[in-house]
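User: Design a sequence. Structure:
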């Protein structure tokens, strides 16, 4: 299982920011890429869905629309923060990953019941 280590949580109504630890031995870093491990985009999206369900009670919904923009690679051992904001009216989960204070990736998922 490839799950980050949640090291800190700052929550407010409808939103949460998680400080995540990324040990180099996480399985998702193996082979992606040899000699220069980075966090795959599919794993980033999986964490958005899992952590959104856990911290914002948005359930394990399916995605009917997905947008993500990659700006920087996410490397193991570096500080990583994930901010999540749920818009219950539009059923949309917005997310931003930051590493070293800079945006690494951001986007949104429109939630749909499976």
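Assistant: Done.
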């Amino acid at each position: 299982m490839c799950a980050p280590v949640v090291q800190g949580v700052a929550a407010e109504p409808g939103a949460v920011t998680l400080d995540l630890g990324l040990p180099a031995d996480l399985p998702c870093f193996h082979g992606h890429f040899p000699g220069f491990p980075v966090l795959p985009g599919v794993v980033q999206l999986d964490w958005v869905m899992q952590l959104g369900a856990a911290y914002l009670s948005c359930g394990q919904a399916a995605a009917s629309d997905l947008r993500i923009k990659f700006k920087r690679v996410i490397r193991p051992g570096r500080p990583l923060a994930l901010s999540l904001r749920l818009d219950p009216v539009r059923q949309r989960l917005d997310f931003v990953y930051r590493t070293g204070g800079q945006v690494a990736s951001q986007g949104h998922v429109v939630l749909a019941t499976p």
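The helical segments are 41-56. The longest helix spans residues 41-56.
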